[in-house]
Predict the structure.
Amino acid sequence: MVHLDAALGEQLLDVSIRQAVAQVLPDVYNKVTELDAAVGGQLADAMELRAKDPAQQAMLAAYLADLNLPDKAAVVEIGCGTGAISGVLAARAGVGEVTGVDPSPIFLDRARDLSAGAANLSFRQGDGHDLPLPGVVRLAVLHTVLSHVSDPVGVLGEAFRVLRPGGALAVFDGDYNTISVATGDIDPLQACADAMVQNFVNDRWIIRRLPAMTAAAGYTETRLRIHGYAQTTDPAYLLSIVDRGADALVAAGRIGPELCQALKSEARRRSTAQSFFGYIAYASLTARKPG
């Protein structure tokens, strides 16, 4: 699945939303079917905002360029959220029918609204551990999903099942051990980044184990690429990480609301002063099911 962004970070200052988030931590994305409409809608907003980030779009284009698909290839995006990536896939030359699968009816309602008019794009409710599809797919995409699921090996196995022989797998996710907003030793903002990972990511090590996991699942022709992602000016996404971490610290009772707001304000002060720095490494992996 996807990450929260700046708009949601600001909205989480509302007490009712903070309480809702506290009830589902850790990893809110692993429990999307349990979210109320307000929180689910804000998550959906954040997915769309992140999908419009030019740097995120460039990373998507880079790993999709590694794929050589036959004409009219059937594609599934597992954990499609609001369908932003599914929409990009459906617009690619040579791609046939694209099916987005997600467990959240809130996300799927948004996806259907946003994709109205796309003749080769549809959405189905389902879980990546038990996909409602036969084995006819040429490409299975997992974009910012595996780090959040409870059984990534099982999801990779389901993707393998629905792929036709010779079909391709594409995985993209964050290497969350690299995330940093620190500009020196003992930087208080780094505590926010660490708390975000602890509370919003199910498996921070997933990228490090991904090549071995895909090989064990039967995939071959594996290619792993690292994509560096840094923000210094207009750091909307990394500011949202600070916000999420600060809110998680409050929800856990580790800091008070005054310090929470002070940490968020410090991040924005740095942004205004052009002294903010945030970084995370992403990785993409492409592989094939033997023909």
Remarks:
- The longest strand covers residues 163-180.
- The domain at 6-177+203-230+280-288 is CATH 3.40.50.150 (Rossmann fold).
